[in-house]
Design brief:
By secondary structure, this protein is an all-alpha fold. It has one domain. It contains three helices and no strands. The radius of gyration is 18 Å and the shape is elongated.
């Protein structure tokens, strides 16, 4: 699965930001906390995923489809 390394600068920054956001929501006892936790995990994964250009697949010639 294409992912960036967690110890990269981008990974550390986004992890800290989302952990602070999650801690703040838990501290406030946000009423929709059951939706905030999975949403935060999905945001974290999306922010650390590789760029779309790196995941791109080369276009195949028409003859390669048969």
């Amino acid at each position: 699965m294409g992912r960036r390394n967690l110890p990269s600068r981008r990974g550390v920054v986004w992890t800290v930001i989302l952990l602070l956001f999650l801690a703040f929501e838990i501290y406030l006892r946000y009423p929709w906390l059951s939706l905030v936790i999975p949403g935060t995990i999905l945001m974290w994964y999306g922010l650390l995923a590789q760029d779309r250009v790196e995941n791109a697949v080369r276009k195949r010639r028409r003859s390669a489809l048969n």
